[in-house]
Design a protein that fits this description.
Helices cover 20% and strands 29% of the residues. A hairpin with a 2-residue loop joins strand 11 and strand 12. The chain is α+β, with helices and mostly antiparallel strands and 241 residues long.
Length: 241
């Protein structure tokens, strides 16, 4: 975990504030002042701030059905509402795992467990994220092949791991799309490059963890056993639609 995130989590401060304190030489790592916020540290390292050791917090795991219009960030002075605004004060210190843009909705995990976050978000672990995308226009089999093979957009190669056309009528389509990486507005950019605008995007699965029947804006404080499903492989053969 990065040094600044480690300090932020264990002190309850924002990451920006943690950055400033580290760069000002006010935080010690294993007895020495370290002014590099992005240095990698482990849970076994000793971090001191204002003469006190920052102790590990109780691990918290929250699943949240993010509604449209909520920004997935810890703090943003320009955001009307952030995910932390949707949670009570006792969950201070948690952070969102991965991205889900403001205009998208659905399954989001928040935690204060940096190792768990790393396992879910690093591309090498290939954790699947599945979305339902409502798009304008009739998506074709050729569109699906192009999305699977990869599309160049703004210097990035964007691709999906799996795509299934669920509905195609009245000039609109619904697709189930699975990705293992999450570049900024990844799925929206793919469909845009194919000539389709995404009208609605909902994340329904992370790994083997499915979005529950929670209403938009609702959350559940669950244990590691529940969210660990997100680390398990999912069987795509099972019919769900």
């Amino acid at each position: 975990m990065r040094f600044n995130l480690f300090v932020a989590q264990r002190s309850g401060l924002s990451r920006r504030k943690a950055d400033a304190l580290i760069q000002e030489g006010k935080v010690k790592l294993n007895g020495k002042v370290v002014i590099t916020p992005f240095l990698q540290v482990a849970d076994s390292d000793t971090v001191e701030f204002e003469g006190e050791t920052l102790k590990a917090q109780k691990k918290i795991y929250i699943i949240f059905n993010k509604p449209k219009g909520v920004t997935t960030t810890l703090s943003d002075k320009f955001a009307e509402k952030t995910v932390l605004d949707c949670l009570p004060p006792e969950f201070k210190g948690v952070f969102p795992v991965g991205r889900l843009d403001k205009d998208s909705k659905g399954l989001l995990i928040l935690t204060n467990d940096g190792d768990f976050c790393h396992r879910l978000t690093h591309p090498k672990f290939e954790v699947e994220k599945e979305y339902l995308a409502d798009v304008m226009g009739n998506v074709t089999a050729d569109d699906c092949r192009k999305a699977l093979h990869g599309i160049e957009d703004e210097g990035d190669i964007l691709k999906v791991k799996r795509i299934k056309l669920l509905k195609n009528e009245n000039g609109a389509s619904v697709c189930a799309v699975t990705v293992c990486e999450g570049k900024k507005r990844h799925i929206r950019r793919i469909f845009r490059a194919l000539g389709h605008m995404v009208c609605d995007l909902k994340r329904v699965r992370i790994g083997a963890l499915m979005l529950s029947k929670m209403k938009a804006g609702e959350y559940m404080d669950v244990g590691f056993t529940t969210v660990s499903k997100a680390l398990k492989k999912f069987n795509p053969v099972k019919k769900r639609y």
